[in-house]
Amino acid sequence: MIGYGLIIIAIIITLASQGYIKSMYNKTRKISVKSNMTGREVARKILDENGLNDVDVIKVNGVMTDHYDPRSKVVRLSTEVYENDSIASVSIAAHECGHAIQDSVGYTFLRFRNSIVPLVNFASRAGYVIIMIGLFTTLVKLLWVGIILELVILLFQLITLPVEFNASNRGLEQINKISIVDSSELNKCKKMLKAAALTYVASVAVAILDILRLVLIAIRRD
């Protein structure tokens, strides 16, 4: 029964966090900034102000597919963020530029997170398979191996928290410093990025609950 309870809690946390960020995004995407700068213009301005002229800003398909690619040195913005001048667009563009700045200064948590990506990719692929085998057979040791791999993924998610919060702080500092937004708009940007950050917190909470559920199952079978 405890296991089912943990699953229900995880589902509630996931749906609540997703609903909150979608609600905040839909709200702020309708509010234009007074500077009328699009996400692309904001990103280019922040990058140039920080001497990152070699970092490109390109448009990609999808919704909320925005990210910074440290290997290609590219800030990729979704079509709406790239083209629009909304609070949401400015906030997201600034956040992704925050990652580019982290990369340029060698931000410790970002470097460590990037260094363990191969291990995390392996854990993601192998962990699920091993856990399934452990759950549907009597091989409890395999289940424990799967749990250890899940802990690797949890470590990655925990490291992601300071990376994301720091990127938001850097982005907000930049749009305020170079007068892209005024004080009232800055507060709206903070709310937008706070909502986005909470999705990462929710992911960590869900991962912890799932690992706890697997540990309880493994203990019962030992």
Overview of the structural elements:
- The protein has 222 residues and is mainly alpha-helical.
- Helix content is 75%, strand content 6%.
- It has helices at residues 2-28, 39-49, 79-83, 87-105, 108-115, 117-136, 140-177, 183-221, and strands spanning 56-60, 67-69, 74-78.
- A three-stranded mixed beta sheet has the order 1-3-2.
- The chain is elongated.
List the helices and strands and how they pair.
Blueprint lengths: L1 H27 L10 H11 L6 E5 L6 E3 L4 E5 H5 L3 H19 L2 H8 L1 H20 L3 H38 L5 H39 L1
Parallel strand pairs: 1-3
Antiparallel strand pairs: 2-3
Unreliable stretches (pLDDT < 50, length at least 5) are none
> SSE order, as H and E?
HHEEEHHHHHH
Strand order of the largest sheet: 1-3-2
Tell me how many strands there are. 3
Q: What overall form do the CA principal axes indicate?
A: elongated
Number of helix segments? 8
Q: Report the β-strand fraction as a percent range.
A: 5-15%
The major beta sheet can be summarized as:
3 strands, mixed
Q: What structural category do the secondary elements indicate?
A: mainly alpha
Q: Please compute the radius of gyration using only Cα atoms.
A: 20 Å
Distance between the termini: 18 Å
Mean pLDDT: 92
> How many domains in all?
1
Give the fraction of residues assigned to helices.
over 70%
